[in-house]
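User: Is it possible to get a 3D structure for a protein together with its bound compound? The compound here is zinc ion. I've pasted both below.
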Amino acid sequence: MNISEAEAANELMRLAKAIAHHNRLYHAEDAPEIPDAEYDALVRRNAELEAAFPHLIRPDSPSQAVGHEVAASPLGKVTHEVRMMSLDNAFSDEEVAEFVARIRRFLSLSADEPVVMTAEDKIDGLSCSLRYENGKLVRAATRGDGQVGEDVTPNVAHIADIVQELRGDGAGGPIPDVFEVRGEVYMEKAAFHALNAHLMDEARAQAEAKGEAFDEAKVRQFANPRNAAAGSLRQKDASVTAKRPLRFWAHGWGAASSLPGESQHEVIRRIESWGLPVSPQFRQCGSVEEMLEAYRAIRDGRPDLPFEIDGVVYKVDRIDWQQRLGFVAKAPRWALAHKFPAEQAETVLESIDIQVGRTGKLTPVGRLKPVLVGGVTVTNVTLHNRDEIARLGVRPGDRVVLQRAGDVIPQVVDNLSREEERPAYVFPDHCPECGSEAVAEEGEVDVRCTGGLICPAQRTERLKHFVSRAALDIEGLGEKTIDEFFAHGWLESPADIFRLKARKDEILALEGWKDKSVENLLSAVESKRAPDAARLLFGLGIRHVGAVTARDLMKRFETLPALRQIAELAHQKHGEEEAKAASDAYAELISIDGIGPVVVEALGDFFHEDHNKQVWDDLLSEVSPPPYVVETKDSAVAGKTVVFTGKLETMSRDEAKAQAERLGAKAAGSVSPKTDLVVAGPGAGSKLKKAAELGIEVIDEAAWAEIVKAAG
Ligand SMILES: [Zn+2]
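Assistant: Yes, that's possible. Here is the predicted structure of the complex:
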């Protein structure tokens, strides 16, 4: 990925905020500001960045949550017995092939073993869970945040597609005692347009009756059929729902006392036989080629469908495989939504601005003649870096092609004025913020300001990162306030934030500050005197130490001084005594899953700088983070560090690690004195030897399977 770490961190922060905002509008208020393709683009971009920079994943990342909280809903709450998941997205054929390849690797399947998948159109509706007990509908709930949804039982009584009692057909055995059908409530396109027209007529009639002027622009209509469906279903007064022509189809299940089949298609066909509609395009595919054929067929038929679809969903057919594959964060490993591509548009690149980030990186931002792409007006686009500008050959005044393939936040994909004879854009060789020289180090694409701490852009960006939500999360200390306090010389480094109370009168003298707001700010600062150690570490903005990496480090070392000590030890390189200590320290750091040489190097470099040590000491004189505590689950290996080595025969290495994590254990890559347990298969070599030297317990794969089984 052609972007620097600092830029990625910044963008992830912006994405987390933006996605949370749109989630709320969409799920809680049924009033989105942006079309789905744009929302998908944001989520997608977030996932891309997280894949490229896994150590930057934020605790508040949208990938860590599903949907919205239902706190503000007037409807009753329903806790889902089995969590309602969302799906990972793909936008290209290659990603679909990779999805299947990943499944093969995870399940250790041989190349000739067929992986049968199901494919069906992904309808653009509202997820709903229908709980049937002894065949009778007892509860209907929306997805909500995946764990807790809203009770819409009285509302779905008005949806003809949803039967109140499942029909046993006599042939397929009994209906399970408990069975939760999951599917989508939706509204057809024609009904959606009719509803909007009706809302308009109603508003006009009301205005006329009251003798008021009628303003069309003020009538609240639904943005798309899905929002119309959501707004119609989520009504406190079910009689409103009754007037809206809602439909439903089933595509899966949640809690079930037993399953009427061993594959996705068997169970879906059974649900259909019980009287609930399923997608008419549901089918099985025996290969990636067949999956892509299904995708193209469904995509080409899309305009003729009476309802909106936004992609194709693939699921692993065998349910025992689904169970082994399990879940990552909020999505199953065994399902994928292959989304349809979004639009392109042409516009003029009016100018190129340069922004300076926390690490001094100069990022070019294209200012565009506003243009509608996929239903959204776009005015800015990132041009990433100097090389990207050269690749596109763009200059102010060029006509460019923008794309919002689910891919990304809008991107320039082509320059239509490339052939025109005008001078090339010259990338600045000086920082626009401080005037220092701006250079790209050898082998680097990013041009950075060399001003370091004399560059106000870098210093303020670092402070903003320090107080941001994923770091210290100091309420009331926003970006504008940081800029303002910084300009007054009150914030030289993070520790100064904790000395602001001495400036109470000076702050009060600033425009816009009142007793109450100053008090709130200072008490927000005081409330962070004993901060979470991992957030503090992340907030320092050490290169390559993202939120997840910071947590991984603190889980192992618990306190910041302990971490510093080992990082400094690992970094020193002279004298034999030291060399031994350094290599032990290095090995210990590297043995942490997710920590590689790049992170160790970056930590060493950080503590090598006197200035950084001063910032660190100064900060720790103001705050005292308590030792980091790891939450553990209840299992024989909870809280322990496990190393897998040798050839595993019933599962892949990834599956083994995923099992360990589910049981609350840490899976490490190499054996160290901190290792509690080694699971060894045939051919285990040096790790097994090392475990023996250190006296660490070693078990085989069968014994591990017992532990997994015992934990349920
Ligand atoms: Zn600068």
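Residues 66-72 have pLDDT under 50 and may be disordered. The first strand starts at residue 77 and ends at 79.
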